[in-house]
Amino acid sequence: MPYACSTLASTSVEDIAAVNPGTKWFQVYVWRDRALVKEMLGRAKAAGFGAILLTVDVPVGGNRERDGANDFTIPPKVTWRTATQALAAPGYLWDLMTTPEIRPANFVHMKIDGGLIGFINTQFDRTVTWDDARWLREAWDGKLAIKGIVTPEDAQRCVAIGADAVWVSNHGGRQLDTAPASIDTLPGIVDAVAGNAEIVLDGGVRRGSDIVKALALGANAVALGRAYLYGLGAGGERGVRRALEIMDSELRRTMALCGRSRLSALTRDLIFKRTLP
To answer: Which end of the chain has fewer CB atoms within 10 angstroms, the N or the C?
Structure first.
């Protein structure tokens, strides 16, 4: 299982590499400062990251209403609202007040004070085009996935510029709340790619049966976000391990109940979709 590190992760690529000798991917955005992008690519390469994931569905930050409702900021701040919420979990509040601030560790030299969306709108380049994706393809000599694809036409553009993988994603539904579910866009993208690139899907993968559905519809792999983060929040490293064990056992059980003993046998005929009258 590869580990994908966010550009805005709270641990640096170097510190991650020090404890993870396995397969590592690095997720990137196109920042206004291209020199900063190249610097991060060099650091990721030096730290043993073998692939980059270019996220293209955040030209501007979505209206993430829950961030405001929960006083979510980077770094986190203790406010009256967060303090009263934390009274039910005093250990969390104490940890927040007594440990180093949570900041994007790869950019400790940059001032980030306030909401995540404000930072995105200030630092991320809104003028990103396919030419930027081509530039990144030329600047990076490892594997490249383009993340945030929801249409067959864009999937074909990814293949045309030399992407190794098309990453089907609606950014967890946090960018555009009426965007289609990624699982619904998957079959058309699979047909358009026609085996010329790997296909990864994320969004709504909560159970092993969700993995079966995605693979049956043509994905080569799925990515997990909330599933392992819930385990992390509940039990740290042991919680992550348990979450992955649950996903694995559910995957195997679902395959057995579908009468399929190999991943390659997960085909579209397993999927029945209701049609509305």
So the answer is: C
- Name which residue leads in pLDDT, 102 or 139: 139
List Cβ neighbours of 125 (8 Å cut-off, separation of 6 or more): 29, 30, 31, 32, 132
The structure tokens listed for 223 are 């990515």
More confidently predicted of 145 and 106: 145
Query: Domain ranges in the chain?
Result: 65-118
Query: Are 144 and 136 in contact, with CB atoms under 8 Å apart?
Result: yes
HSE, side-chain direction, 13 A CA sphere, residue 203: 25
- C-beta separation of 187 from 237 below 8 A: no
Cβ neighbours, 10 Å, residue 169 = 25
Q: How far apart are CA 155 and CA 166, in angstroms?
A: 6
Rounded distance, CA 129 to CA 30, Å?
10
Set 24, 137, 147, 171: catalytic member = 171
Quick check: helix, strand or coil at residue 257?
helix
Q: Is 171 a catalytic residue?
A: yes
User: Which pLDDT band, with edges at 50, 70 and 90, does 88 fall under?
Assistant: confident
- Give the residue among 176, 180, 139 at the shortest CA–CA distance from 38: 139
User: How many angstroms separate the CA atoms of 241 and 229, rounded?
Assistant: 11
